[in-house]
TrEMBL record:
This protein's record includes keyword Zinc: no
Native source organism of the sequence: Blautia parvula
Family, per entry: Belongs to the class-III pyridine nucleotide-disulfide oxidoreductase family.
Superkingdom assignment: Bacteria
Transmembrane region(s): none
Annotated keywords: FAD, Flavoprotein, Oxidoreductase, Redox-active center
Record domain Rhodanese: where: 463-533
Name this polypeptide is given: FAD-dependent oxidoreductase
Record InterPro entries: FAD-bd_OxRdtase, FAD/NAD-bd_sf, FAD/NAD-binding_dom, FAD/NAD-linked_Rdtase_dimer_sf, Pyr_nucl-diS_OxRdtase_dimer, Rhodanese-like_dom, Rhodanese-like_dom_sf
Length: 544
């Protein structure tokens, strides 16, 4: 059997390597437009910031090394320009010689990836306009940053790559602004979580301009100003991180089914509508594991899973891909962020009876050096108890919280089933009640009614109007707010009728919950706890 793979990097090299292990006798040939067959695209921002010191560290395999290691053949500098499905062959151009070539196949794998979106705006051909897709892109930006000529940079696009580039440029002393045409950065996070990150970035010196469109660049051959729908920004460089577009133009008029964003539609075996053609990686459209709706997951992690599955199926197995969960994690200055599963809005759109909670919990034993907090949003279905998703912010290992949630979501666990899991505990790693379990307990308390709250969103919407704010902290903390000491509550509180509306606030929410529990015992019926406390909502909670 002759298998032709178009494209390298993660998806193409994975399918080729796995296929040669599954079926050594299969003839596998990779055609790639680039000279680099396999590189760490997700590591590019860290090369810009000199966290990764050498470009060679980004190159996972050279074509020669990959061929010897796997047995697959590789031809670089080959751009596929056409597909003849009936004849089972592709037409390609040799970029070195200009020669047109034809390659035949029994099975074809399309792993052509995607290219950066470059809008048709004035000035984007100027010097110091950069992208972040290949090692060459990272090399160009790094050299410019090291030259000392860049003092101010604008990043167009508030996704993970754009934010990672912002962090790494800032670490080099370059003043950085991120602009995005959406209301918030970090797609896949609920608005209140993204807003917390935006405020944090501002504190770190990275400004975000939201609901703002890029309109072009001004300068005398080199970037001097970045024009936006709000105002012009003085800058020495612009980094385009506006998203990517699948490299599927050569499939026009071939009958291969494409999604509206021009990615290739595949089934759960990674097959296209042609049984002899597979597609995977950034150029393919798969499904969401939970909603079963079509989903695009241009991630190296997804590409590797898809490559493995496609190879097994080509070799004669019957392996299905259940789909992606939208898992992601990003490192920011002084803050990490991770998420998986459904956001609150998507869960509602999917028909769930949504309940959520925002909790602030310790990431390890509070007395252990380096201990900090996780800011967690958990989402579930109130009626069925199904666990639906998590979003986590914090200085520590947010990925471990997200990865636990990935397993829970994949097993379709209920919140109740997650209540008594036997997590690893030692002070350097966790708390005696694991932070994931702690958040589950808080969510269960809310679902049972033993915890009555306002979410940060409800508070921001003004639903706490008419409630008297009470400082429930260990000691008076909130300026201009009455303090109520939990340890001194032993009956009716003088000056507070039992039907009084009181909003109980402490640093994280735990002490406010304990105060609510005690006040209820003594007959107080209208108390609410502010989820996330002053840590998430800020300390300016004084009443107008």
């Amino acid at each position: 059997m002759k298998v032709l793979v178009i494209g390298g990097v993660a998806a193409g090299t994975k399918v080729a390597a796995k296929l040669k292990r599954e079926s050594r006798e299969t003839e596998v040939l990779i055609l790639t437009k680039s000279e680099d067959i396999s590189y760490a695209g997700c590591g590019l921002p860290y090369y810009v910031g000199d966290v990764i010191h050498e470009r060679s560290q980004l190159i996972v395999n050279t074509p020669e090394k990959f061929a010897k290691l796997t047995g697959a053949e590789v031809e670089t500098g080959i751009e596929v320009t056409g597909l003849d499905r009936e004849g089972r062959k592709v037409t390609a151009k040799d970029l070195k010689s200009g020669e047109t070539k034809e390659y035949t196949y029994d099975k074809l794998v399309i792993a052509t990836g995607a290219s950066p979106v470059v809008p048709p705006l004035p000035g984007l051909d100027m010097k110091n306009v950069f992208m972040m897709r290949t090692p060459d892109d990272a090399e160009a930006l790094r050299k410019a940053a090291e030259s000392g000529t860049i003092k101010r940079a604008v990043i167009a696009g508030g996704g993970f790559i754009g934010l990672e580039v912002a962090e790494n440029l800032q670490s080099r002393g370059i003043r950085t602004t991120v602009l995005d045409m959406l209301p918030h950065i970090m797609p896949g996070f609920d608005p209140e979580m993204a807003e917390f990150v935006e405020d944090h970035l501002a504190d770190q010196g990275i400004m975000t301009l939201l609901d703002t469109k890029l309109e072009g660049v001004e300068g005398d051959g080199t970037v001097e100003k970045v024009k936006t729908s709000r105002r012009a920004i003085k800058a020495d460089a612009l980094v385009l991180s506006l998203g990517i577009r699948a490299n599927t133009a050569f499939l026009a008029d071939t009958g291969i089914e494409l999604a509206p964003n021009r990615t290739v539609l595949v089934d759960d075996h990674m097959r296209t509508n042609d049984e002899n053609i597979y597609a995977l990686g950034d150029c393919s459209m798969i499904t969401n594991r939970m909603t079963h709706a079509r989903a695009w997951s241009p991630m190296g992690s997804s590409a590797n899973i898809e490559g493995r599955i496609a190879a097994q199926n080509i070799a004669g197995a019957d392996v299905s891909y259940p789909g992606v969960l939208g898992t992601g994690v990003v490192k920011l200055p002084g803050l990490n962020a991770g998420r998986t599963g459904l956001t609150e809005q998507v869960a509602k759109e999917a028909g769930h009876d949504v309940v959520s909670v925002v909790a602030v919990v310790d990431d390890k034993a509070h007395y252990y050096p380096g201990a900090d907090s996780f800011l967690v949003k958990m989402i579930a279905d109130k009626t069925t108890g199904e666990f639906l998703g998590i979003q986590v912010l914090g200085k520590g290992a947010v990925d471990k919280m997200v990865d636990i949630a990935v397993v829970a979501l994949s097993m379709k666990a209920t919140v109740q089933q997650l209540e008594h899991l036997d997590f690893a505990y030692a002070p350097p790693f966790s708390t005696a009640i694991h932070p994931f379990a702690h958040c589950i307990n808080i969510l269960l308390n809310k679902m049972s009614g033993s915890l009555d709250t306002f979410t940060p969103v409800e508070f921001a919407e003004g639903k706490a109007e008419g409630y008297k704010v009470i400082d429930a902290s260990l000691k008076p903390t909130l300026e201009g707010v009455e303090f109520m000491n939990l340890e001194e509550i032993d009956g009716e509180v003088e000056g507070h009728p039992k039907d009084e509306k009181m909003l109980l606030v402490c640093a994280k929410g735990k002490r406010a919950y304990m105060l609510q529990n005690r006040l209820r015992y003594y007959g107080y019926t209208n108390t609410k706890v502010l989820e996330g406390g002053s840590t998430f909502n800020g300390e300016d909670l004084t009443e107008d």
